[in-house]
Structure formats: C-alpha cells, structure tokens
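testing teh design pipeline on a random one, pls ignore if ur not involved
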C-alpha cells in the first residue's frame, strides 16, 4: 500500500508538525515500506498457532508492604542551608515562580 506525501502532510498538520519536502517524501517512502511488511505478515498461515502476547516469561515480584520507621528529621536537615516549616527552601528556578 502506497502512502502518499499528501497523506503524510495531512497527518503532520493534524499533529501540528511541519516537515520539509525531502522529509515528507522520506516519511511517505518509509511508512509505505512498513505497511507493505505488515501486509506480508497477513499472508502467513497461522491456523492452529496459539496467540502469543509476549515471548518473555514475565512475572511481577511483589514484596510485602510494611511500614518502616523513617529517618530522624534533624538528621535529614543537618546539611540543609535553609528550611521553613519542615520543608527545604530552594531558590526559585522559574521566571514567574514568585515566592511560591
């Protein structure tokens, strides 16, 4: 299936992207090749083959959720330059950050 440059431009516009003519042409060619490869897979006889969602034997390893005693607050704030109301004060890094 051939994907046209016009289709690439249309999707790019919907995505608020812009590409040069060379990039648009390259995308059209690459996407056409990808669609052709997928169409080739449709020709493979998969009758009697079980559905596979993953090739890896993945298992979640969960630990028991236990409450643990935290670190002493005074020790945490030992090397802090400025603190206020149990928070670490840091310099404002955003232009309109104000005094937040």
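output:
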């Amino acid at each position: 299936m051939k994907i046209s440059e016009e289709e690439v431009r249309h999707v790019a516009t919907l995505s608020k992207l812009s590409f040069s003519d060379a990039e648009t042409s390259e995308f059209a060619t690459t996407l056409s090749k990808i669609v052709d490869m997928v169409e080739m897979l449709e020709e493979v006889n998969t009758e009697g083959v079980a559905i596979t969602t993953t090739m890896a034997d993945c298992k979640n390893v969960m630990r028991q959720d236990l409450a643990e005693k935290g670190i002493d607050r005074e020790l945490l704030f030992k090397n802090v330059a400025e603190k206020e109301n149990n928070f670490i004060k840091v310099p404002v890094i955003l232009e309109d950050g104000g005094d937040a």
